[in-house]
Design goal:
globular; about 150 residues; alpha/beta
Length: about 150
């Protein structure tokens, strides 16, 4: 099996499904280094009664613990939804090498706060969007449709 952006985004979607099943906003994330997942996370805001328990934060913490390091310059974060500004700040401080996200979040994503052309991430971080965006967006739509 080829390890590429689609493969790892599917792993993030598995995490998002865990959030969905737990009645959490279905966002999932994985941190990958050298084609190995070193951190996983899904939203646990309701379960932990913690507004900072976003998928990205949980996945980053798992990766830091795995490596015994506070920096991830050689890692990639795959997340099903565009990171919010809080998560973007955490990603900045992690010095992560690459961020790949699926669906855009016009309401709460970092692009709402950051000026066009600017980036909230570390200067060396590259960003790639739109990977499996339809699948990522559909999970969100299904979740919120069930809430109405």
């Amino acid at each position: 099996m080829e390890m590429n952006d689609d493969y790892f985004m599917r792993q993030a979607l598995r995490e998002a499904q865990k959030a969905f099943d737990a009645d959490e906003v279905p966002v999932g994330a994985v941190v990958v280094m050298q084609d190995k997942i070193i951190g996983r996370g899904h939203n646990q805001v309701e379960q932990l009664t913690d507004s900072t328990a976003h998928a990205e934060i949980i996945a980053l913490t798992a990766a830091f613990n795995y490596l015994g390091s506070k920096y991830l310059p050689d890692a990639t974060l795959y997340v099903t939804l565009e990171p919010c500004f809080m998560c973007s700040g955490a990603l900045y401080w992690s010095k992560i090498g690459r961020v790949v996200y699926g669906a855009e979040d016009d309401k709460n994503g970092y692009r709402k706060i950051v000026h066009a052309g600017a980036s909230p991430f570390h200067p060396k971080t590259t960003v790639h969007s739109g990977v499996l965006k339809d699948d990522c967006a559909q999970l969100m739509k299904d979740f919120f449709k069930g809430k109405r």
